[in-house]
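For the sake of clarity, the format in which proteins appear in this thesis is described at this point. The record quoted next illustrates the convention:

___
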Amino acid sequence: MTKKEIGLTNSAGDLATGPRYREITARIREMLANGTLCAGDKIPSERSLAERFRVSRNSVREAIRTLAEQGILETRRGDGTYVRESDGERLAAAFVAGLEAQRHRIGDIFQFRRMIEPPIAALAARNVNKEQLDRLKVLVCDQHQCVLADRDDTDFDVAFHRELARASGNRVVEEALNALHELLAETRSGFLRPLERRESALRGHMRILMALENGDGEAASQAMREHLQRAEAAALSRKSSSTDKG
């Protein structure tokens, strides 16, 4: 097989929001599943991947090391890193095992989000001021434009949840979500956000915004809970379909 170097496109926001080596590992597995990468292909350099994914070279190196330990990649001194010419059954098994581990982690993070974000929404409904409400409306409008154009809306999704935390009036809540940003961002990776999930997320934000306008804490909490449940179902469904492809 001809050895070719694979180029990767970097959709805005895919990795800029925080996921590190686990997300890079998952992205490479995704490319193996959809045929972007095949046995014998050379992957881009650590520096190139770090620039495109907007992460440190150490994160890229850790992802490559993980995949090498699983027998998926091999690094050739002085030449680069290649997808191993291994038997298809072994490669598929490693791919499925890795996706399953990532699936459990995504589920755990969503469970954590459901524990903390509905009460934040309820608090915001009681404390939000007009200026904050206007900012949330602008963010939803901007997100709507992205969804209509089928563009990545991750930055607006993140900004909405951050502004909601700010609207709670509790500075510790805002600081805690900022500190947990990298962890929570693992559920917002671009390849976990197909168009149907982005459309559903937009509707969820609209329902939360309506509850905030009405000052209804219970409705805001329920809207957030349902929003996260739908997001989790869409994300895990995306991972299941990727596993089926393998």
About this structure: Residues 1-19, 241-246 have pLDDT under 50 and may be disordered. DSSP finds ten helices and two strands in the chain. Residues 88-127 form the longest helix (40 residues). The first strand starts at residue 73 and ends at 76.
